[in-house]
Design a protein that fits this description.
single chain, four-stranded parallel beta sheet, about 5% strand
């Protein structure tokens, strides 16, 4: 889940990855695109809603945006919302036939895997993104009906086939002038 410690780790990873992509010492321009996502692990944890509709996550999300803006001031920052989840494709009883602790872990993990939680968290994040003039890539809309593209027995990770189609459909985001909506959301199709 997104908390102060994990936010710092996410930020450090983004910094390292972006700098290695752009090149050390090279200036970042608006053509430098930083796409980030956070949220799925918050949905899968029993206390991630922290009794107050993801309050901790949203506070840390706002801090993360501010840090990204400060350090990568020349880059264009885009948020990719959280994917739809498909708990119905997970059969925990086949995961650890000989290992009951794996079965229990699986049941615990999918207990909180629901699209109503995804939609709530995405909406809260999109409000913060809009307030910060950050565009949103609609990953949820593309993956909502894509359960057949889930990796086997996994309701939250998708096969490369869909991932590639998603990135192709978002290719317009590289110019940030095409396929954008007045609400700052960039949509695409799964191509199927």
């Amino acid at each position: 889940p997104l908390n102060s410690k994990n936010r710092q780790t996410l930020f450090a990873n983004a910094s390292t990855n972006l700098r290695s992509s752009v090149g050390a010492g090279q200036p970042l321009t608006q053509r430098t695109l930083l796409i980030f996502n956070t949220g799925l692990w918050d949905l899968l944890e029993p206390k991630s809603g922290d009794g107050d509709y993801f309050k901790t996550h949203i506070v840390e999300f706002e801090k993360l945006i501010a840090e990204l803006r400060q350090i990568f001031s020349g880059a264009t920052i885009v948020y990719k919302n959280t994917v739809a989840v498909h708990p119905h494709v997970v059969n925990c009883n086949t995961i650890g036939i000989k290992n009951q602790s794996l079965v229990k872990q699986c049941h615990k993990r999918i207990q909180y895997m629901s699209n109503s939680r995804v939609k709530l968290l995405n909406r809260l994040q999109e409000i913060v993104a809009k307030q910060n003039n950050i565009r949103v890539l609609d990953h949820y809309g593309i993956t909502h009906g894509a359960d057949r593209f889930c990796k086997p027995n996994d309701g939250r990770h998708y096969r490369d086939e869909l991932v590639e189609k998603v990135w192709e459909s978002w290719s317009a985001v590289t110019t940030l002038n095409q396929s954008s909506h007045s609400d700052n959301t960039v949509t695409g199709t799964s191509g199927s």
